């Protein structure tokens, strides 16, 4: 069974309610039809009757809940919650009303915050910033986590490395500036994500162009310091570094370059030293190894919200909704 089929099966086992706020895009409705037919999640689609009629025509939306942001009986509840959360930032009832009518992602996050939904998926026609910003403002971070990061779950065909070809690559989507504490935190939340989705112990490699001090530079020190922080904060976590990629993945190279390491040669969760490296790395594997790249999946938020590529297909939305539902199951 392919990875995404296993995720869909997990999602079906305890259905969650996911909000799709992009009713202005036909891909939302194509994906919704598939999600509903497969029973992956309960769906809420935010849109006016005109938007639903224009973009949803021809798609079977039986079972979906359609919420008109201009005539929703729960609207005042969401306005009140918005003001409660953001009044210190100058949000008045008038500003709250205008914002949620103009930007449906705010509406979606307020539905989650008020307990009317379990997660949200956006980004087919909005930027990553427009997806993450409402979530940060309204849902906040998980306790003990300081920032959002993004990972890709990579499924590499005919590969015996990692967990039989399954890996998490992080952070490939969100953070531009990494320091040692942030890298350590990304290692921890990425390990949690690996175990949540794959159901196997995570072995986290903190990547660099150096292995265990073979090169000297501030960029190398940043990574080695992150490993020390991770060991101190989460002693149960299997994390090591700094490691070059071959030392992280290939057992013979790991034994040579990092003897005694529990991670070297066996890594399945790869933490890149920069967004640049992570983004290039996942795309190289995706294109050259013909790997499936599921994501970016966001981690660190108090409730699951996930971003889509603006070039995504309807099937990508289906897969992201399934992964969001599995994240929501873990949140209770």
Explain the overall architecture.
With 332 residues, this protein is an alpha/beta fold. The protein has two domains: 3-140 and 302-331, Rossmann fold (3-Layer(aba) Sandwich); 149-288, Rossmann fold. 46% of the residues lie in helices and 15% in strands. The protein is built from 13 helices and eleven strands. It has helices at 3-13, 26-38, 49-56, 75-86, 93-102, 104-113, 128-138, 180-198, 218-233, 245-249, 251-257, 275-288, 314-331; strands at 17-20, 42-46, 65-67, 119-122, 149-155, 166-170, 204-207, 239-243, 269-271, 292-299, 305-307. It has a six-stranded mixed β-sheet, sandwiched between helices. The protein has a five-stranded parallel β-sheet with strand order 3-2-1-4-11, with helices on both faces. The longest helix is centred in the middle third of the chain and has 19 residues, at 180-198. The protein is globular, with a radius of gyration of 21 Å. The two termini are 26 Å apart. The model has no long low-confidence stretch (mean pLDDT 92).
Keywords:
five-stranded parallel β-sheet; Rossmann fold; 332 residues; alpha/beta; globular
Task: Please write the CATH class name of the largest domain.
Answer: Alpha Beta
Order of helices and strands: HEHEHEHHHEHEEHEHEHHEHEEH
Q: What is the average of the pLDDT values?
A: 92
Beta-strand content bin: 15-25%
- What global shape is seen? globular
CATH topology label of the largest domain: Rossmann fold
Outline the low-pLDDT stretches: none
């Amino acid at each position: 069974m392919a990875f995404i089929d296993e995720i869909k099966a997990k999602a079906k086992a305890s259905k969650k309610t996911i909000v799709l706020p992009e009713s202005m895009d036909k891909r939302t409705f194509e994906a919704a039809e598939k999600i509903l037919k497969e029973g992956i999640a309960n769906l809420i689609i935010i849109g006016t009757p005109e938007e639903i009629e224009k973009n949803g025509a021809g798609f079977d939306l039986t079972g979906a809940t359609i919420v008109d942001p201009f005539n929703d009986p729960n609207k005042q509840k969401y306005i009140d919650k918005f003001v409660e959360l953001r009044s210190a930032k100058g949000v008045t009832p008038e500003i709250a009303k205008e914002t949620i009518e103009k930007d449906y992602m705010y509406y979606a996050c307020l539905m989650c915050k008020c307990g009317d939904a379990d997660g949200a998926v956006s980004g087919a026609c909005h930027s990553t910033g427009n997806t993450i910003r409402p979530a940060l403002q309204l849902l906040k971070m998980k306790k003990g986590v300081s920032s959002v990061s993004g990972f890709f779950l990579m499924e590499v065909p005919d590969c015996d490395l990692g967990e039989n070809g399954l890996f998490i690559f992080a952070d490939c989507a969100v953070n531009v500036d990494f320091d040692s504490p942030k890298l350590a935190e990304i290692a921890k939340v990425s390990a949690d994500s690996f175990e949540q989705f794959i159901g196997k112990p995570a072995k986290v490699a903190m990547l660099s162009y150096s292995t265990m001090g073979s090169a000297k530079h501030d960029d190398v020190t940043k990574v080695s310091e992150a490993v020390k922080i991770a060991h101190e904060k989460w002693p149960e976590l299997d994390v090591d570094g700094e490691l070059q990629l071959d030392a992280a993945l290939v057992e013979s190279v790991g034994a040579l370059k990092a003897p005694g390491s529990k991670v070297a040669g066996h890594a399945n969760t790869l933490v890149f030293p920069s967004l640049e490296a992570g983004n290039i790395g996942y795309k190289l594997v995706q294109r050259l190894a013909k790997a499936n790249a599921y994501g970016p999946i966001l981690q660190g938020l108090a409730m699951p919200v996930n971003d889509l590529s603006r070039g995504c297909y309807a099937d990508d939305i289906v897969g992201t909704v399934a992964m969001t539902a599995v994240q929501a199951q873990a949140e209770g």
